[in-house]
Structure prediction request, 397 residues.
Amino acid sequence: MKKAMNTLPWRALPVLLCAVFSATAGAAAFQNWEQDAAGIGVAHAGSAAIADSAAGLYYNPAGLTRLDGVQFSAGFTGLRPVVEFNDRGSSGPGLGAGDGGDAGRWLAAPNASASWHLGSDLALGIGVTRPFALDLDYDADWLGRVQAQRSEIRTVNINPAIAYRVSDRVALGFGVNYQTIDLDFSRAGQRLKGDDGSWGWNAGVLFTLSPAMRVGLSYRSAIEHKLDARVDGSAARATVKLPETAILSVWQQVSDRWEAMGDLSYTRWNTLKHVDFIERGSGVLLASEPFSSGNSWRLAWGAAYRVSDAFKFKFGLAWERSPIGNNGRTARLPDSNSLRLSFGGQWLLGALGRLDAGYSYLLMRDARIAQIRDANLLRGKYENGMHIVGVQYSLGF
Prediction:
């Protein structure tokens, strides 16, 4: 009885975390959580605490200390947003015709990571990911052509990291990030393009409370990009500050067959209110793109059940609070709160490594919009959703 009483609080911690934070969960805008497709099946719950492959260094570099020898992990995720506008009284001299069709397009999010364990306490790793992505393409002559036609953002993040095990219970990790961004926006009569490469950092700590329980805490810094830009052929400059993110995760081995995990994350999107394109030399404002972002929370819970020695079934859900409110919603970011439903599996292939696969669907609230631009009002409602499918292969030497 005494043993049961001592272990009960730790076993209850994931549930308690969910209960405490269930009213303030969130996500999303154009942040991409799919940096390790193995996590799709559990809605990326426990992301900073699971630490079972090299891909985990994106969520918490301290987890590298748990990996033996040389580890390699590579994966691919496809994301298909559904973005459909329904008109409710748009007006203005520049209106086109039609609702624009489904503006969502398939997004590819590949990742690759490797780690090396040096001695008993030191580990190195490197990962390549795409942490932010956006790709919307409306019909050319739709009602909101003055607000937006094509919206594309692409990033690539290269993240070398180092981790050190301070004791049996505590490990620390730190990484630097070199991130590139490419932006391509168009609307009726205007095209904006820009690119840049800038630096940031990430750090984490992993607490091993017992062989059956880990808690991870990690942080990724904001990265400010100063774009070398063009506005309809004119040389310009613009600043885009991509947000910082903090993650608190719990992983627990509940029994021989069951694992449970939870995640609470916070992303500080309010660094991105608008993007101004300034003409080089003259300092004249050539264009401005509104974002009006607030901050967001995300809460995830997941579980895994070992069906056999070779196969594990996963499932999870996440509530994601969008940083885009009704007053700041635009045709480029018609985002809304969402509920993510996920399932997946893991296959152990013996000496050939491990294969993970997963699928998620985001149920998103209808999103109202009333965006005014150049005396044109885009008024209506968006019906949004997203399909996510991915595979991850991991191998140790």
Remarks:
- The domain at 2-396 is CATH 2.40.160.60 (Porin).
- Confidence is low (pLDDT under 50) at residues 1-27.
- The two ends are 43 Å apart (CA to CA).
- The longest helix spans residues 2-21.
